[in-house]
Amino acid sequence: ALNSSETPFSGNLDGNGKITAADARVALRISAKLEKATEAQKLIADVNLDGKITAADARKILRIAAKLEKL
Predict the structure, then answer these.
(1) Taking a C-beta distance cutoff of 8 angstroms, is the pair 4, 15 a contact?
(2) Under a CB-based contact definition with an 8 Å cutoff, are residues 12 and 19 in contact?
(3) pLDDT truncated to tens, each residue of the chain (71 aa)?
């Protein structure tokens, strides 16, 4: 999880410095209301910048992790 000493960047929901399938999983869980987003996650999970965290964000994060798409 992100803490205040880490610099968040778009798509990196677990704060490990990389965008991975685990980040997509967190975004999908947030979009399905299975997990509550932190304030930092609310900002960085919305990779398509539509103001919401949805399955579309999770899909984009997964495609970035798989190197099929760029951020």
Answers:
(1) no
(2) yes
(3) 544 444 457 899 988 989 999 999 999 999 999 999 999 999 999 999 999 999 999 999 999 999 999 87
- Per the CB < 8 A criterion, the answer to whether 65 and 20 are in contact is yes
Q: 46 is written with which tokens?
A: 């919305």
- The reported pTM is 0.85
- Please, what's the b/e burial string for 28-60 (b: 16 or more CB within 10 A of its CB; e: otherwise)? bbbbeeeeebbebbeebbbbeeeeebbeebbbb
Q: Where are the alpha helices (DSSP H) in the chain?
A: 21-31, 39-45, 55-65
Backbone angles phi, psi at 42, to 5 degrees: -60, -35
